[in-house]
Amino acid sequence: MGLRHFFRLLPLVGVCLATTAGAVAVLQLPAEVTSRMSGAWDATLQTPCKPFKASEAITFSDGAARLESFGLTFTGALEGAEELSANGLTSLAGDMPEDKFHSYVLCAEHKNFMETKHRPGFGSEIRTTELVEYVGHLVENGNPAPRCGLAKFNVLIRVIGSDTLGLKEDSWRYKQSLQYVEMEFSAVNLTAHCLHGVGDVKAKAPGSQDGNPSGRKSKKRRRVGQISSTDDALRGVVDRRVYEGSVVLRLTRLKPPEKSFYERYSSSLFFGCTMILCRVVQGFMSYRTWQRVAS
Predict the structure, then answer these.
(1) Radius of gyration of the chain from Cα atoms?
(2) pTM of the model
(3) Domain interval for residue 97
(4) In a domain, 154, yes or no
(5) Nearest to 135 by CA among 157, 118, 152
(6) Is residue 79 classed as helix, strand or coil in its secondary structure?
(7) Are 193 and 264 within one domain?
(8) Which end of the chain has less neighbouring CB within 10 Å, N or C?
(9) Is residue 20 assigned to a domain?
(10) d(CA 65, CA 178)
């Protein structure tokens, strides 16, 4: 038990040392999430800040992974931690001041289970699917953490995986039991510097000098704090939340969980053991027959 927790703390210690040196941007997830993400994942970022949309393959090992294109490290928080590090949001939100947000708090967890006799890509291996949603608040530097329930949630973490009931935390099946993780950060001050077209935009009518052909001012209003959906740079970013200022990060497992050695070779082992047993029985019977003939 002690060794297991010791090895779990190793990536956290490394992240803390690197962060102190100013080298690593960190985004923490609940420990019960990262402990189930071992393996290769596709990370897709959608943000109203440049580069707007990016995708990269990452690998989780010992509860940690690195998103190289943004210099961001994912890691798990300590069990029972009330505040989770979010200083890595700086790298996902363009030129946001480094001291804008340093952490976030989770206020609630909602969990549901549903029977899935057949999961696409997983066959009949996952009989029960687990759906989990965490909600919380970002914490601005210099301000106390907002009290849960008194403000609108601006942190959402959605998780999809298989049921882990009866599995040990150090088993390979437990460590690969999640298939999808989505993080959404939607604080107003997070990407406000990337939003444009804020306020009223005067539109000139064709053939007129000042856009007022009938003596009345014609104004085309755009929702405050919202990106124009016609921006060429944002074509291909299909999530509507991004146009409204949210940062959305999706992690999708690249391949189904690996099978154990026994599951992969059980039929071969059974066939081999059967053949060996038959040979042993056949040899024993031949030996008994030879003894009777010799006597």
Answers:
(1) 28
(2) 0.70
(3) 26-197+239-258
(4) yes
(5) 157
(6) coil
(7) no
(8) C
(9) no
(10) 15
